[in-house]
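Recall the central idea of this unit: under ordinary conditions, the amino acid sequence of a chain determines the structure it adopts. In this exercise we apply that idea directly, starting from the sequence alone.
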Amino acid sequence: MRRLLFVLLTLASLASFADEPRPLRVGVSIDFEPMAFIVSDEVQGIEVDFARMLAARIDRPLEIKIYAFKDLIDALESGEIDIIMSGMSITDERKERVRFSEPYMDIGQMAIVRTEDASKFGQPNALNTDGLKVGVHQGTTGEAYVLDNLPHANMIAYEGVEQGLAALRNGDVDVFIHDSTTSWQLSRSFVNDNLMSLNRFLTKESIAWAVRKDDPELLTTVNLILKDMKAQGQVSDVINRWLPVIPVTL
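Accordingly, the structure predicted from this sequence is:
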């Protein structure tokens, strides 16, 4: 009798476990304020808010997994995560490896300089100067822009945004090129109060979320939820909460 009871309890426990939804594993790069960053040991930002909303909509617990930006697609392809939500721009190169959701915000690359040097960059072609040291975030469209458009510059790639901005503050580079969201965030940063954006778009890009190519079901679900979030004004509400500048939301 005891053995039968044990078997029944075990089966009931397994059935209960099987009914529990799988976590939605979201990959982010946390060195990317205001998209995803850490404050007091808690991951916060635009993409984190969206991740919470998405997980709640599909009734799955949320699991945030942190990677260097350059490693996010590898983590997605290997099955470590289900979706990338980390300020990732849609590019043809990335589309060869992932499926993108519909975009939710337009951005572009912008150049950030030390305030004292701003007058040196009055002309757009000033960035393509022999020996100019240009910092970028490794694996991003900012890096691609410099490689494709600034052949005379000396490019230095950094693991994260904060490392690049620190290098600019310290004089290790003359310019740091990154997403416009980083430029817009500067007005809220006391650490970077000696830096300023040139506030000119060097590129035009759209941000979206990425899923594995073999997961069309999740992509369809994400796009339906995103469409509804846009219609209800939730996308613009989240973005405006974190950014002092109102960007174009799609």
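Residues 152 and 227 are 43 Å apart (CA to CA).
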